[in-house]
Amino acid sequence: MVKAVKRIMLITSSVVLTIALSACEKKSQSQSQPQSESQSKSQSESQPKLSSSKEVLEKYSEVVNNIKSFKYSTVFTVKSTVKNSATGEIETLDRIREFTSEEGSFSTEPFAILSNRISEFSNYTIKRIKYENESDILYQKDDDQPWKKKAGDRDLDSKVNRIKPVIASPSFLESLKSISDDLKLQEQGDNYILSYSGNDNKIIKALNAFDKNLYAFRGKEINLKNVNLKIILKKGSCEPVEISFTSESFYTSSEYQITGVEAKRTFSEINTAKVTKPEGIQ
């Protein structure tokens, strides 16, 4: 009888102890969770808030110049609209002159650059893949042809200077800084939004520096109108997320021939990107 009572008391004690320990663990978790959330909030609030377009551009310039790797995707379309010079009525609307898309990646450790560009024109298409690493050989593949070896840059800095403008074109950044008072700064979630809307040529240098293969803004006597530019940057780091714009332009001598451009470039895997060597390269 005594043994039975002791056994019951032992079982009861074990149950009570288990319940008590479980309650303590839940209380500890509930106390640590608000502390973690509080720490996260505190860290977010501790980041300096940028109050002007100029400050954001300065931080953006500093960040992109120190980027070691990234991936990007570029798309732009060039269209033509022709109006009757006598009546002003549209004769040809949004005829596509060029559609270009490019995906690429860049890394310094190990050093490698890869780009895959497709450009479609009214009567022909160009497909070109390029790959470079530490060597002085440029590998190039056009359309469905085999890979070809070409003489490349021996100097790594020279190679970097060719790819870095995709994310940090000095001309693009400096031209934006020169009109920083005309840029609107907004906060949207975790991002800063820099935007510009206008009908003059003060932003033409920035558009001209967007892509080395976009020639719509490189002639003389070009007039811009209906320009809408948007730059999205991560609020915490000012790393670029997206650059996009739409515009219309015409030559002074032919104002009834209007060129429209829609362009967008997005970035990903900044400072974590790796470049994979394409298959078929010996």
Describe this structure in words.
By secondary structure, the chain is of the alpha+beta class. Helices cover 29% and strands 41% of the residues. It contains six helices and eleven strands. The protein has helices at residues 2-46, 53-64, 156-163, 165-168, 170-178, 204-208; strands at 69-83, 90-108, 111-121, 125-132, 137-142, 148-151, 184-188, 191-198, 222-234, 240-251, 254-268. It has an eleven-stranded antiparallel β-sheet, with helices on one face. The chain is flat, with a radius of gyration of 29 Å. The model is unreliable at 1-45 (pLDDT under 50).
Provide a concise account of the structure shown:
With 282 residues, this protein is an alpha+beta fold.
List strands and helices in order, with pairings.
Blueprint: H1 2-46, H2 53-64, E1 69-83, E2 90-108, E3 111-121, E4 125-132, E5 137-142, E6 148-151, H3 156-163, H4 165-168, H5 170-178, E7 184-188, E8 191-198, H6 204-208, E9 222-234, E10 240-251, E11 254-268
Antiparallel strand pairs: 1-2, 1-11, 2-3, 3-4, 4-5, 5-6, 7-8, 8-9, 9-10, 10-11
